[in-house]
Design goal:
By secondary structure, the chain is an alpha/beta fold. It has 12 helices and 6 strands. The radius of gyration is 18 Å and the shape is globular. Bound molecules: phenylalanine and cobalt (II) ion (CO).
Length: 293
């Protein structure tokens, strides 16, 4: 799983993307002004459902010992894997647990629209599914990544609140011209975060949890650096979008994540802007590395 960089043009189509000139994948013609659309569940083919099931089964089969317990416990909320879940059914269940919903979107959406949805506890889920030849790797997030990777932890009350706060923070970052710094926080927590547990480090990031190979790599491989979560440290750190990560950041709990991100970021952005970027794989002097889980 790779590029979650958000679109840069706000407002109407055509939507363009931060990383180069690929046209967005997906049909934006039926999207509303807030970029939400219909899931159109009946248009999925039997082959689409079968592909979802194969993706689901491969991932669910390798969660034990690699995914954090909260994720493992919540994944069953996605329902039986024999079909792509209906977003309306999933939303009804999410609403009861944490007040979140999932809404369909045609694909990547502009950052401001993305932040606005999160701030109102609506998680945008891409409606299309990858092609069979993309079983192992898809460049843009599809329905499998968005549902399997992101939705289970929206059932966790603390994580659910963090996601909403992130959305509100994103709207503010837009006004402060700090979206790039804030995007690093999303990348290194929501997409590629690890959490320390009594059994060792485990994955909670959606980009890892929906990846065939990176789940095992991120938790077990001796290669990448695993360092303690630090807000300024993360905002200074570049990231790779087309390879496994070379650094992962480890939180002690979702409460730590929530508390550390609660203060007003205005001053944090100002500080970070004066400090040099850190390359994706570097470990700073004195920084301790967590061992593989
Ligand atoms: N506290 C942040 C701010 O003032 C908002 C935020 C919360 C951002 C959680 C990200 C995650 O901008
Ligand atoms: Co994602």
């Amino acid at each position: 799983m790779s590029d979650h960089d958000k679109a840069v043009n706000l407002g109407t189509a055509p939507v363009t993307y931060g990383q180069g000139d690929r046209p967005p994948r997906g049909d934006y013609s039926g999207a509303r002004a807030d970029y939400t659309s219909e899931q159109d569940w009946s248009s999925y083919t039997p082959a689409d459902h079968a592909l979802y099931r194969r993706l689901y089964e491969r991932q669910v089969g390798q969660l034990r010992g690699l995914a954090c317990d909260d994720f493992v416990a919540a994944v069953e909320h996605l329902g039986a894997p024999d079909r792509i879940p209906r977003f309306d059914v999933l939303s009804a269940s999410l609403r009861r647990h944490t007040g979140w919903e999932v809404v369909a979107v045609p694909g990547l959406i502009p950052e401001e629209a993305f932040f606005a949805l999160l701030a109102s506890r609506r998680f945008p889920v891409t409606s299309w599914i990858r092609r069979p030849e993309e079983f192992d790797y898809v460049v843009e997030p599809d329905v499998f990544h968005d549902l399997f990777g992101h939705v289970p932890l929206l059932f966790n009350p603390v994580f659910a609140d963090y996601m909403q706060a992130y959305g509100a923070g994103g709207l503010k970052a837009g006004r402060l011209n700090a979206c790039e710094l804030l995007a690093r926080l999303y990348w290194y927590t929501v997409e590629f975060g690890l959490i320390q547990t009594p059994q060792g480090v485990r994955a909670y990031g959606a980009g890892i949890l929906s990846s065939a190979g990176e789940l095992q790599y991120s938790v077990r491989s001796p290669e990448p650096s695993r360092v303690a979560f630090g807000l300024e440290r993360i905002m200074r750190t570049r990231y790779k979008i087309d390879t496994y990560q070379t650094t992962y950041f480890v939180v002690e709990s979702f409460n730590q994540l929530f508390r550390a991100t609660e203060p007003d970021f205005t001053a944090v952005y100002a500080t970070v802007r004066c400090l040099p970027d850190i390359a994706a794989g570097s470990v700073l002097p004195g920084e301790q590395r967590y061992s593989a889980g």
